[in-house]
Amino acid sequence: MRIVEGIWLFLAAVWLIAASRAKKVERRQSFASRLGQVVVLGGAFLALTGDIPYTGILADRFIPESGASIAAGVIVTALGAALAIWARLILGSNWSGTVTVKHGHELVRRGPYRAVRHPIYSGLLLATLGTAIAVGELRGLLGLVLACAGFWWKSRTEETFMQQEFGDRYTRYQHEVKALIPYLL
């Protein structure tokens, strides 16, 4: 689990360093919308972390504890983090932790954005799946479900902003490229 925690800390460090290069915000999602997303995603984080002693059904295992299951979880977590970091670097100064439109915002369609419209969310969800596998307890699956709900909510908000900003260009992008999983979803 220390390796999984290290992957998440590395991802957070990349986010903090890259955040200093963001463009000026022109429009931002409402405080209430952001707060709701933070609560749901925070719940996912709490379910996945081992800092809380879980009991009952949340402590039950959905996958047997073994070196193989932990290794698989670490690999999937690392792959998801790598995708999220790649997408974050490609997005560059257009990125924000909240849903925003930036001054001089551009519609990015290169790198992982050719395959999915929200590759950061795809990567974070894949990393969350990997962490759930490494944890191996039902609380990990609860965290995954909460993360899916939180990123679905955030992506819907983002889709509205991008549609308003880019109009027909974004509509074409929506028809050409799936939101989270290439060719599927």
Features:
two-stranded antiparallel sheet; mainly alpha; 185 residues; 63% helix; elongated; Four Helix Bundle (Hemerythrin (Met), subunit A); 6 helices
Task: Summarize the SSE layout with pairings.
Elements: H1 2-19, E1 25-28, H2 31-48, H3 67-91, E2 100-102, H4 119-135, H5 138-166, H6 168-176
Antiparallel strand pairs: 1-2
Helix pairs in contact: 1-3, 2-5, 3-4, 4-5, 5-6
Concise account of the structure shown:
With 185 residues, the protein is mostly helical. The protein has 6 helices and 2 strands, in the order αβααβααα. Helix content is 63%, strand content 4%.
CATH topology: Four Helix Bundle (Hemerythrin (Met), subunit A)
* Alpha carbon gyration radius: 17 Å
Give the tally of β-strands: 2
Straight-line distance between termini: 30 Å
Count up the helices: 6
How does this model look, in words?
The protein has one domain: Four Helix Bundle (Hemerythrin (Met), subunit A) (Up-down Bundle). Helix 3 packs antiparallel against helix 4. Strands 1-2 form a two-stranded antiparallel ribbon. It is 63% helix and 4% strand. The chain contains 6 helices and 2 strands. The radius of gyration is 17 Å and the shape is elongated.
